[in-house]
Amino acid sequence: MKLQEHKATLSFSNGAPSVELPIYSGTVGPDVIDIRKLYAQTGMFTYDPGFLSTASCQSSITYIDGDKGELLYRGYPIEQLATQCDYLETCYLLLYGELPNAAQKANFTERVTKHTMVHEQMQFFLRGFRRDAHPMAVLTGLVGAMSAFYHDSTDINNPEHREIAAIRLIAKMPTLVAMAYKYGIGQPYIYPRNDLSYAGNFLRMMFATPCEEYHVNPVLERAMDRIFTLHADHEQNASTSTVRLCGSSGTNPFAAIAAGVACLWGPAHGGANEACLNMLEEIQAMGGVAKIGEFIAKVKDKSSGVRLMGFGHRVYKNYDPRAKLMQETCNEVLSELGLENDPLFALAKKLEQIALEDDYFVQRKLYPNVDFYSGIVQRAIGIPVSLFTGIFALARTVGWIAQLNEMLADPEYKIGRPRQLYIGAARRDVLPIAQR
Ligand code: CMC
User: Where, by residue number, does the polypeptide cross the bilayer (predicted)?
Assistant: First the structure.
């Protein structure tokens, strides 16, 4: 980051001395005012719940221009990565900063591939869960449990351990997600096949059975790979910030990533694709396209507590570029599977069109986000709704690790410890129970 010559001056109307604060610029995006010494200089904190104006770190991984609707991984536009690279190339880019050449790609793919199997004992750990447990509950547990299975890669301060943990997590997440699914439906686990692509192997672990051969459909394989690429990283969102905060205490990488999985589960974040599909099904059950107006009216009525899921974003105040790519994939998958007339897809398209023309959404700059179409694609592939967020977690794992490793390598990194504006009772004394 570059220190600017000009400074920000904070002055107070009560006559307290003003304070000069340094300003830094990044490569692109808003400058930041450095307030680290503010408390020492003024005895005051800043107040910013939800981090609306706070940069929590410096990062060189992902950049979002919310007004333009632009998403860059290490400077490369998501549109180019999604159409010209595969997910493992994207993982390499996020982890190491550059796209791999052919030899680097082959080497990285081999390293990931060699780690796809999980410790056999993890099956028994998984068996402790109820069969109807939500896959995100299972995944939070399984990822956290990896720290108990892979002791040789838990030292977060050891770069070699961090590297092995990164490869293990990327390699094993598809296996764990598929195991969680198979367990839930009572089918045997399918071991990974390392001659398949990352996405192809995942589809096989999900949908093959020991009874017959499974052939990976290249259209679905490409769609899966794109879902992974589009979800790979998204700068300092809630789950990534959770991973950074959790990792800042020096905990092991598996524990930090498990914290990310837990955070992602929420419906305002990764759980939105599940919530979006449930919403579409609910409108369909109400009467479909004819009922969109009624549903939109409910969304606009703040007292209803209903939101249009898959719409709106903290950073994008324009069309989410991932949503466009996902819509393209949606068309491809539905046409491959002969589902062009899928009523939910038709409903989603109509809902999007109506919302984009509605003043409520226009004024608030609410556009479709990636989750608006990803649920329809996944449903068409045969993935159950409850597993959508698990697949998001699988894809985002690389982003979490890249961000965690970046933080640990940053000489300015400290344990994360926000301050607060305390509004509770001032000091008081405990009364004997009879007097309370
Ligand atoms: N439907 C209806 N109204 C909305 C919506 C929505 N989906 N999103 C925001 N608004 C309204 C909100 O009520 C508020 O209106 P007003 O100014 O009248 O009070 C205004 O828009 C600003 O909303 P906000 O809650 O202050 O915005 P935020 O930046 O805190 O929230 C969000 C961002 C993603 C949580 C929110 O847009 C939302 O709940 N969307 C639905 C859930 C969703 O699709 N999440 C996926 C995000 S993308 C995947 C990921 O990164 O995890």
Answer: none
Q: How close is the Cα of 311 to the center of ligand 1, in Å?
A: 7
Q: How far is CA 322 from CA 34, 87, 251, 318, 368, in A?
A: 32, 14, 32, 11, 9
Q: Answer yes or no: do 278 and 242 share one domain.
A: no
Same domain (yes/no): 329, 302: yes
Residues 286 and 333 in one domain: yes
Amino acid identity of residue 423, one-letter, is I
71 lines ligand 1 (CB under 6 A): no
Q: With contact defined as beta carbons under 8 Å apart, do 250 and 400 qualify?
A: no
Per-residue pLDDT of the chain (436 residues; tens, 9 = 90+): 898 989 999 999 999 999 999 999 999 999 999 999 999 999 999 999 999 999 999 999 999 999 999 999 999 999 999 999 999 999 999 999 999 999 999 999 999 999 999 999 999 999 999 999 999 999 999 999 999 999 888 888 888 999 999 999 999 999 999 999 999 999 999 999 999 999 999 999 999 999 999 999 999 999 999 999 999 999 999 999 999 999 999 999 999 999 999 999 998 888 888 889 999 999 999 999 999 999 999 999 999 999 999 899 988 988 889 999 999 999 999 999 999 888 888 898 899 889 889 999 999 999 988 888 898 899 999 999 999 999 999 999 999 999 999 999 999 899 999 999 999 999 999 999 999 9
Nearest CA to ligand 1 atom 11: 364
261 and 275 fall within a common domain: no
Verify that 376 and 395 share a domain, yes or no. Answer: no
Provide the annotated active-site residues: 313, 371
Contact status, residue 299 vs residue 282, Cβ threshold 8 Å: no
